[in-house]
């Protein structure tokens, strides 16, 4: 019923908009040329630097990454580390202004690749060379789905550029068998545009992790202890493909086909040494656990797009139908050899088969009207059908394994999202107002087949947004915005079955999880001075029903991590961004973020409200030594960050890049990451009943050398800049 009403509402949108714009007493005004902004509106601000072109609009900022040398040899995670507002830690986990609840889109559409424990790995495996620019949206309008309390990062894929045939070939390699190779082909004519990109990436890493945990013994008042020392080797190979086809059937009608594909083969292996002591410090257990993980994940998405324009400049009706399928197969095997006490060796194996299917139908309508008014509306219908099967085995050796019911389960997740939005933008003199409202209806069916447990988790919510931009002069403007957003839990976070991580650690989900809700406010100022752009933003966020890890101790002495709505927090901060030119050959990109975070007491064993003042910064310097030689220096620092049961310690890194242009088509590229080996991970748990510290060091220092070769050129088919739509309703 709801779906039918939403579709009916979308069908009525064009007629409603025309009715609002109609003026019976006199003919409608002639549309303004598309290349000129409507009078009195706050236009886009574009600043071009050697590394990144920045384009700002009333609700977002767009950064080109095509000039970032780290992006030419690395992953999209490497490129994002250099952008304002964005943090990517050593494990690939991403956050915006200290908040990890980020929604990542590809060409305006969500991808299941960036859900659950695959998110960090997907960022590290997706080649940055396939991405042209990144939209960072810290306070999205209602045009974007409400997921992501921290905001939205929209990755815009490269399209064919230049007339006729175009293409490029890129290869690079480094120590340890690291390698990246890719090719891009494109064709543009007056009617047809075709793009294809294929990239292979191989990476190897060594990771050393030490972990200490102490648990309060209520009987004695002392703390027992657990120490873990882990040494892992990681290797993954990934193959990514992307292809688009756009055909202009008529001057007003464009149809398009698009497909994404990714195959990842990931292997992890290494030993972990465990020791346990009682409150008196006496040894309770001493054993080694050898872990092996082999994952094969294949993901594919296909979409058909329709874009229909009208006689009024800028009036567009777009629609898309997409299907995404992910098959994720993993084998997780462990073998335990105990030194004390004297007990037989043990072996375990878990075979995980994850199957995810997503179907999505979207429609969007944009209608410019008289006086610089723009009306937008759209619907988004999505259906997710996921199955998570885990088969567990245990025995005295890897050759004597038998099925273990305690490690075997089947969990089914089905979700239906029905969404609709409207936004209305209108200038009032030097003030421009963008108001929006989004309706989202969520129906979740959970079936823990093994436990015989079925749950429903349904809710319907309205999400308003408001953006204001006040033009002070041709070079300065003020802005203010508000949005109400949520963070939906990942599907596996609902699975109540207990999952074995290692002999001392388990994890399980929670079927009763509700989405985190956030009210977000921003106040900004930006100024353009010649080639420089300066931005200052004050922001404030209130988070409710935050989902966080809760670590508890089982009666057996093992640790259990689960997810619960236990976090309530507030954050406020000031972000400064500067992008410009120091001399004729030196350009810079700088950003700094100082913010205050407060976590209120929840049932986590933390009795009082905790707060901290921290920050992070980014800096890039680009030196065009000669017309053929470019040097880049990138540095970033991430400050201390509070967690529900403790905090994360500061970290940072220095990266270098050099490009030598041999011809107009051929260049050599050299990059070095984490030059001083300072990029590390450290987390502290500090509660009255549980204490702990986790330190992880990955051999992030990486040196890569390679070349880029391009061919073709000429005038681009469609040189105009266009922000990626929040709904992804048509070709860009």
What does this structure look like?
The protein has a single domain, classed as TonB-dependent receptor, beta-barrel domain (Maltoporin, Chain A, Beta Barrel), CATH 2.40.170.20. Strand 1 (45-48) and strand 2 (53-57) form a beta hairpin. It is globular, with a radius of gyration of 27 Å. The protein has a 22-stranded antiparallel β-barrel. A seven-stranded mixed β-sheet has the order 1-2-3-8-9-6-7, with no helix packed on it. Strands 4-5 form a two-stranded antiparallel ribbon. It has 732 residues and is mainly beta. The protein is built from four helices and 39 strands. Mean pLDDT is 86; it is low at 1-43, 46-52, 715-721 and 725-732.
The poorly predicted ranges are 1-43, 46-52, 715-721, 725-732
Strand content: over 45%
Rounded mean pLDDT score: 86
User: What best-fitting shape do the alpha-carbon axes yield?
Assistant: globular
Radius of gyration of CA atoms, rounded to a whole number: 27 Å
Under CATH, the homologous superfamily reads: TonB-dependent receptor, beta-barrel domain
């Amino acid at each position: 019923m709801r779906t039918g009403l939403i579709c009916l509402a979308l069908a009525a949108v064009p007629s409603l908009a025309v009715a609002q714009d109609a003026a019976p007493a006199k003919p409608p005004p002639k549309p303004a040329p598309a290349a000129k902004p409507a009078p009195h509106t706050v236009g886009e601000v574009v600043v071009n630097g050697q590394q990144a072109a920045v384009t700002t609009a009333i609700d977002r900022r767009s950064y080109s990454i095509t000039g970032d040398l780290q992006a030419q040899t690395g992953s999209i995670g490497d490129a994002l580390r250099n952008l304002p507002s964005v943090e990517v830690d050593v494990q690939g986990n991403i956050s915006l202004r200290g908040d990890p609840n980020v929604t990542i889109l590809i060409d305006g559409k969500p991808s299941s690749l960036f859900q659950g424990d695959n998110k960090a790995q997907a960022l590290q495996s997706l080649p940055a060379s396939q991405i042209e620019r990144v939209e960072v949206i810290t306070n999205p309008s209602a045009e974007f789905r409400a997921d992501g309390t921290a905001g939205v990062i929209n990755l815009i894929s490269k399209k064919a550029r230049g007339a006729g045939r175009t293409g490029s070939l890129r290869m690079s390699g480094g120590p340890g068998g690291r390698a990246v190779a890719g090719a891009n082909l494109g064709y543009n004519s007056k009617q047809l545009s075709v793009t294809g990109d294929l990239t292979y990436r191989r990476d190897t890493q060594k990771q050393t992790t030490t972990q200490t945990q102490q648990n309060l013994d209520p009987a004695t008042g002392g703390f027992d202890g657990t120490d873990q020392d882990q040494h892992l080797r990681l290797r993954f190979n990934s193959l990514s493909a992307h292809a688009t086809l756009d055909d202009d059937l008529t001057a007003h009608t464009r149809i398009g086909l698009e497909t994404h594909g990714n195959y990842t083969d990931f292997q992890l292996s290494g030993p972990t040494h465990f020791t346990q002591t009682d409150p008196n410090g006496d040894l309770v257990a001493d054993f080694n656990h050898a872990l092996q993980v082999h994952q094969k994940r294949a993901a594919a998405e296909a979409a058909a797009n329709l874009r229909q324009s009208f006689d009024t400049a800028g009036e567009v009706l777009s629609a898309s139908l997409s299907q995404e399928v992910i098959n994720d197969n993993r084998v997780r095997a462990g073998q335990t050899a105990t030194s004390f006490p004297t007990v037989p060796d043990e072996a375990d194996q878990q075979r995980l088969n994850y199957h995810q299917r997503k179907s999505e139908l979207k429609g969007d309508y944009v209608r410019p009207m008289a006086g610089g008014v723009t009306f937008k509306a759209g619907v988004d219908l999505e259906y997710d059908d996921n199955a998570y099967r885990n088969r567990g085995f245990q025995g005295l050796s890897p050759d004597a394994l038998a099925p273990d019911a305690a490690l075997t389960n089947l969990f089914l997740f089905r979700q239906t999202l029905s969404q609709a939005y409207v936004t209305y933008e209108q200038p009032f003199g030097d003030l421009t107002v963008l108001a929006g409202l989004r309706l989202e209806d969520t129906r979740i069916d959970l079936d823990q087949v093994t436990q015989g447990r079925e749950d429903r988790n349904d809710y319907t919510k309205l999400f308003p947004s408001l953006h204001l931009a006040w033009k002070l002069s041709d070079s300065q403007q003020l802005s203010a915005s508000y949005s109400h957003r949520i963070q939906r839990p990942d599907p596996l976070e609902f699975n109540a079955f207990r999952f074995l991580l290692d002999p001392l650690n388990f994890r399980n989900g929670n079927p009763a999880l509700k989405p985190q809700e956030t009210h977000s406010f921003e106040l900004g100022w930006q100024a353009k001075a010649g080639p420089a752009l300066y931005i200052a933003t004050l922001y404030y966020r209130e988070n409710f029903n935050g989902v966080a890890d809760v670590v508890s101790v089982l009666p057996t002495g093992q640790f259990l991590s689960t997810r619960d709505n236990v976090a309530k927090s507030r954050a406020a901060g000031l972000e400064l961004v500067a992008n410009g030119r120091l001399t004729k050959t030196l350009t810079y990109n700088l950003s700094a973020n100082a913010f205050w975070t407060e976590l209120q007491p929840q049932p986590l064993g933390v009795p009082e409200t905790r707060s901290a003042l921290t920050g992070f910064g980014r800096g890039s310097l680009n030196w065009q030594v000669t017309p053929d030689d470019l040097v880049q220096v990138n540095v970033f620092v991430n400050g201390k960050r509070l967690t529900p049961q403790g905090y994360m310690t500061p970290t940072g890194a220095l990266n270098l890049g050099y490009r030598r242009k041999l011809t107009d088509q051929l260049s050599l590229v050299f990059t070095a990451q984490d030059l001083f080996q300072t990029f590390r991970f450290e987390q502290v748990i500090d509660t009255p009943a549980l204490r702990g510290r986790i330190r992880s060091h990955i051999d992030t220092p990486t040196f890569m050398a390679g070349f880029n070769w391009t061919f073709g050129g000429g005038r681009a088919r469609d040189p105009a800049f266009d922000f990626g739509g929040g709904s992804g309703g048509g070709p860009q």
